[in-house]
Specification:
It is built from 10 helices and 12 strands. The chain has 398 residues and is α/β, with parallel strands linked by helices.
């Protein structure tokens, strides 16, 4: 059974009963008609059951139509109710005043009930269209706000991820600063020893041009080595975000140039097994090197911890570059540092999860490293051998 929509309500406000009766008889065919003889009575009705449209006379006792219209248009609850003046006042300034107060129409008596009905129908249709548009705007606004909220959440997530990547990069650069000190010390020592030998020979009167020319190339080689290290760290600190092709072994060489001396300082042996026939991979090279440095740092930490517990322990890192399968290549870093606690394995790639003591790790290195590899359609995998060691595999299409 189809339920009919309730009739729209029309409020006629006029102190002349005959005028009210004429309009009411015509409008009652299609609408629910309410009547009031003056402004205060009309306000009581409007507050009790707001009408859909008001027909309003101007000249009434207690409160004229202009004042009543002004009050309604100032009220947030009633200002959208269409008001049509139906009045005997025919002066142009009266019409201008009524429309300026917010009325939608102005009819001068005598006017036929049929004309009034036609105007009522037109303005109710306009009211329905306006309300429909307002609902559409509200719904669209809600949708846009929802989309904006989702977009903001996405941007905040991207910002947090970028901040995490930046934090991880800064942590990696911190590690590199320590490594770099060891790397630079060696060429500095060579330069220092060479210059000191010149001073000693000079005091003895034995410093010759041939000796100096012979040593100059050694000095230049060591200065160039320091310069390359500084340039490389500067590049990592301000990396290009361009995806490019590169060979894994080239980036491995750069990474090891930053930390090899630190590994040797801890007595860690590095073994390399590199398949030189593999194709290049595509990624942001600086970000790939950051992943590599994170893994090397983790291995060094694990091996250093084990060596501090076991005096006769011989720490080893095996690095191999090989084909993972038909479509992917792999750079694997394996150490004999005892592996990872099986209870921690499941969470090892979670943000802020760390197996290091408080203050010794951010818990972001592995999480960010895996995110970076996934970004380039690769992955970072853990092959754990508790009690023996851990192997992390960087896998990329190639």
């Amino acid at each position: 059974m189809i339920q009919e929509s309730p009739k729209e309500k029309i409020l006629i406000i006029d102190d002349i009963p005959a005028s009210v009766k004429t309009l009411a008889n015509k409008l009652e065919e299609d609408y629910l008609v309410l009547t009031a003889a003056n402004g205060p009575e009309a306000l009581d009705i409007i507050h009790a059951e707001p009408p859909d449209l008001i027909l309003l006379d101007i000249m009434m006792p207690f409160m004229d139509g202009y004042e009543l219209c002004r009050l309604l248009k100032q009220d947030e609850k009633f200002h959208n109710i269409p008001v049509i003046f139906v009045t005997a006042r025919a002066e142009e300034e009266d019409q201008a005043k009524g429309l300026a107060l917010g009325a939608v129409d102005y009819l001068v008596k005598p006017v036929s009930a049929a004309i009034v009905k036609a105007r009522v129908r037109t303005h109710l249709e306009l009211k329905r269209h306006r309300e429909h548009l307002e609902r559409m705007v509200e719904e669209r606004t809600r949708e846009l706000n929802k989309a904006l909220t989702l977009l903001q959440a996405k941007k905040e997530s991207e910002f947090r991820r970028a901040a995490e990547v930046h934090s991880g990069r800064m942590a990696a650069l911190g590690e590199m600063a320590t490594s770099m000190a060891h790397e630079i010390n060696q060429p500095l020592n060579v330069i220092s020893i060479t210059v000191q030998s010149w001073q000693l020979l000079n005091r003895r009167g034995a410093l010759t041009t041939e000796k100096m020319l012979h040593d100059v190339q050694t000095l230049l080689d060591n200065v160039n080595r320091i310069s390359r290290l500084i340039d490389h760290v500067r590049t990592l600190g301000h990396p290009s975000q361009e995806i490019c092709g590169f060979y894994l072994q080239d980036v491995l060489k750069d990474a090891l140039s930053l930390c090899r001396m630190q590994f040797l300082h801890h007595g860690i042996t590095i073994n390399l097994d590199i398949d030189e026939s593999l194709p290049p991979v595509r990624a942001v090279q600086a970000e790939f090197e950051q992943v590599l440095l994170n893994l090397l740092s983790n291995s060094r930490y694990a091996l250093g911890e084990k060596k501090s517990r076991e005096g006769n322990f011989e720490p080893v890192v095996n690095i191999r570059i090989c084909r993972k399968d038909k479509d992917r290549v792999c750079l694997a870093i394996e150490d004999n540092g005892g592996g990872i606690d099986p209870l921690a394995e499941e969470n090892i790639f979670d943000p802020f999860f760390t197996t290091k003591p408080p203050g010794q790790g951010t818990g972001l290195g592995l999480s960010i490293s895996r995110q970076l590899m996934l970004k380039f359609k690769g992955d970072l995998l853990l092959i754990n051998n508790p009690g023996q060691g851990a192997c992390f595999e960087i896998v990329l299409p190639g």
